[in-house]
Amino acid sequence: MRTGGNDSKFGFGLAGGTAAAAVRRAAGSPAMILEGVHAHVGSQVLDTAQLAAGAAAVARFAADTRMHRLTVGGGLGVAYEAGQSAPSFTEWAARVRTAVRDAGWASSVTVEPGRSIAASAGLTLYRVGTIKRIEGVRTYIGVDGGMSDNLRPALYGSRYEVFLPRSPRASRPLRARLVGKHCESGDVIVDEAALPADVAVDDLLATPVTGAYGYAMASNYNKLPRPAVIFVRDGRARTVVRRETEEDLLRLDVDEPAGLPAGAAQAVRSGAGAAQCVGTA
Hints:
By secondary structure, the protein is α/β, with parallel strands linked by helices. The protein has 2 domains: 15-118, Alanine racemase (TIM Barrel); 122-226, Lyase, Ornithine Decarboxylase, Chain A, domain 1, CATH 2.40.37. The protein has 7 helices and 9 strands, in the order αβαβααββαβββββαα. It has helices spanning 18-27, 48-64, 89-102, 115-118, 152-156, 246-250, 262-270; strands at residues 36-38, 69-71, 123-134, 138-143, 174-179, 188-195, 204-208, 229-233, 236-241. The chain has a 5-stranded mixed beta sheet with strand order 6-5-4-3-7. A hairpin with a 2-residue loop joins strand 8 and strand 9 (236-241). Helix 2 runs parallel beside helix 3 (89-102). The longest helix is centred in the N-terminal third of the chain and has 17 residues, at 48-64. Its cofactor is pyridoxal 5'-phosphate. Residues 2-119 form the Orn/DAP/Arg decarboxylase 2 N-terminal domain.
């Protein structure tokens, strides 16, 4: 989740003059109007000193190159696990403002709160399908979702809490591995989930703080339909994204590829892999 620094696929690095060369090229291009610079040092940052240091670096560059606009991106993290704490907007803004002013930037500064606004606004509901207890090893709890609706744990080891909506304040002595329904060993939602001892098949489970990088990263992996998105306010709910259907999964399939003999068309439909090239004599 680190996007800043010299060894990154993103942007133009300050080291070695790459960013300065990009500014000169953009400023001299008849096809572009150079307004300002933008930086984003990383995501899920819980230390405002790191965000302030990144803001100061790009502010210094923006001032030296006489830019009109400065955006220091986002990156402010949120608390995903019990015991975590995240800086407030006020603390973040104060540190960034001081950093850019001390770096010589006197104009306005734009930021992108992103995750810190959306994440805590959402949670994901699953239904328990299986409970597998392996004596002396662990308990597995399988649900009707998984890495197709929350890729973050499998992609880079992100951690979440989980609770039962029917008893949100109940004690959670049970330790179990919360897993999805995909045929992948890495399809783990919460590795060591703390749950009430009476969790049962058909229970609803909730993983909070999934409002950012949840549905936005969802996929149809293993041809699993994506879930619905529901907005809730003051006890009233409304669907804003409907649940996908089998028809949605099949809507891009072509029944009979144009210009191919029947046998070749069947080979295309039944072939494996990202694409199949079929030749005809």
